[in-house]
Every structure is written in structure tokens, then in C-alpha cells.
Amino acid sequence: MDQNRSTNLGEIIRQGRVTQRLTLSQLSAMSGVSSSHLGRIERGERYPSGSILRKIAEPLGFEENELFTLAGYLTPTSSGVAESRPRYGGGELDPYVARILAQEPIDVQRAVIGILTILKSLALSTVKESA
Amino acid sequence: MDQNRSTNLGEIIRQGRVTQRLTLSQLSAMSGVSSSHLGRIERGERYPSGSILRKIAEPLGFEENELFTLAGYLTPTSSGVAESRPRYGGGELDPYVARILAQEPIDVQRAVIGILTILKSLALSTVKESA
DNA sequence: GTTGACATTTGCCATTTGGCGAATTATAAT
DNA sequence: ATTATAATTCGCCAAATGGCAAATGTCAAC
Question: Which residue(s) pair with A91 in the sheet?
Fold first, then answer.
């Protein structure tokens, strides 16, 4: 086990597959990785190796570097992904998040912030109730 | 077994270690990978995972991309130098959205994409119901 | 030749990955 | 409601990784 692993890589991979409108079997055929393994990866039951990531990056519409960085195999600074990473008020924006959001209309992007604000308030009040 | 594997990665890694004038124990201490495993890798008895490569790249004086490409985990074309200007798949990201999101932890940023995906699915199925 | 320090290799095993084939679940058509 | 098909999940197992601790090899000093 490696501490650098992403906790939601499987979900990211599933989202990529759904975005490309592929079934597990179709992605399996395109990538050469078995559908049962892909299912386990998406559910978080297995962590994909570098070999697997290379095979599924293109069918899922990812840059290889991007996917390796998401998986924690490449550190952001050396994969080149971070070179495009703008800094905003001292914070860093994940390149994957930026890329996906950029494909949406501006209204949707801003709505996302509204939803995030609501969820944060909800989380805060939930924490207060638990105290 | 993966066909993309390099047959001489172990030797390349050994050469890097010798060039840096390190023993297996020293490289182990610097990288956090056990010396016995490093020895097996150098002799070709084990093939290092992406996690191991990330840990040993810097002590050996390699760029991470370079070592991953040597190992066959990254294809050469996609591990090249990133373009200097930010690109988001042809779309533009609202600066306000970028600034706000950048203030959140990376996990939260990625969760936001998950929520967006769910909402889009809901919207799509709602549109289908309306038709 | 012996000894000790240092470096590397080996035996072993727990853990994890990845694929086959079957089972289960979901979905669409009737 | 039923049935067929599509999609996903599961049981199982072989293969591979990675680390501990011990064993072996190398070399310098005596």
C-alpha cells in the first residue's frame, strides 16, 4: 500500500467512462483490460497499475500524464501537468477539475460554486449538531 | 505480464545509482524502498511499480516522466514537455470559479466534479421524461 | 588465515493485482 | 408480469510485488 494513492480514482475513471458513453465491456475491448477488473477498479476494490492506466487513458479521454498524476504515480510538479496549474489566491486548482469544468457553460460553473457553498454550510451545521 | 516493459530497466536503474555514487542501502534510505527490493529490481527479478519509480526517480537523478517512459508505463509521445500555456480542452474556465475552487482541498475539488456528473445525469433523464 | 564491516542477495511470506467464467442485476421489449 | 439481453459483480486462483530477516559475498585490516 502506498500513501500517495487517490481515494477517488475509481470514481474518476467511472466518470470518464460514462462521459465517453462506454460500457465496461466496450472499454475492455478498447483497452485490452478485462471488464471484471475495470469494474473492480471503478468500485475501488483494486488499484490500477501503471500498465493498466496507460491502456485506459486514451479510451477514457485522459492525457496519460493527467491520469498518472490523479493516481498518485507521478507527482504534479514533474508530470508537466502542474505547469499549466494556475495559482489563485494561494490555492491550487486541480488540472483535471479545471479541464472538466471548462467544458461547461459559465452559468453551470458558477452554479457549481453555489452548490458547494450550500454543501459546506450543511456540513458545518451537521458538525455543530454532532458537538 | 505487460508487453510494454523494458528489458533493461533494472540495468538502467543500477547505472543511475552507481552514477550517483550510492549503495543500495543509501538509495533505500533516500527513497523509502527496501534495499532487498531495489537489488531485485536491478537484477531484473522484480519489475518496479509506479509507486516505486516515483520514489527512486529523484535520488537517481531521473525526471519522473523519463523513468516512467523507460519503464513503459508512459508512452513517449504523451510524457513530453507540457505546453507552456494553460489549456482546458478548448473551453474556458471562469476565473471566479477557479479562484474559489482553488481554495478548497484537492479532494473537494474532485468531489465537485462527481456531483456535477450526477446532476448532469439527472438533468438528462429529466429531459428524457419530459419528451 | 581470520575477522569485522559493508554491501548485496536470498528465503519466505503477506498482500495485491488481474483475468476467467459464472452468477447476479439491470434494462428493454413484449 | 415475463423474458431475453446487456451490463455488472463475484468467486476463485495464478502470478506478481514488496519487505523482513537471515545468509552470503567482498574487501580491507591485522
Answer: A88
Residue with cell 498524476: A69
DSSP A71-112: HTSS-HHHHSGGGG--EETTEE--HHHHHHHHTS-HHHHHHH
Is A32's CB less than 7 Å from nucleic acid strand C? yes
Q: What is the pLDDT of residue B16?
A: 92
CB distance B113–A15 less than 8 Å?
Answer: yes
ipTM of this complex prediction, to 2 decimal places = 0.78
More confident residue, B19 or A45: A45
Interface test with A, best of B58, B69, B73 (most A CBs within 10 A): B73
As ranges, strand C nucleotides with an atom below 7 A of a protein CB are 6-11, 15-22
Closest CA to A59 of A82, A40, A38: A38
Are B65 and A63 in contact, with CB atoms under 8 Å apart? no
CA-based nearest residue to B59, from B93, B22, B111: B22
Domain extents in chain B: 3-130
Fold of A3-130: 434 Repressor (Amino-terminal Domain) (1.10.260)
Q: pLDDT tens for residues B24-45?
A: 999 999 999 999 999 999 999 9
Mean pLDDT of all residues in chain A?
85
Could you give phi then psi for residue A88, rounded to 5 degrees?
-125, 105
Q: For the whole model, what pTM was predicted?
A: 0.78
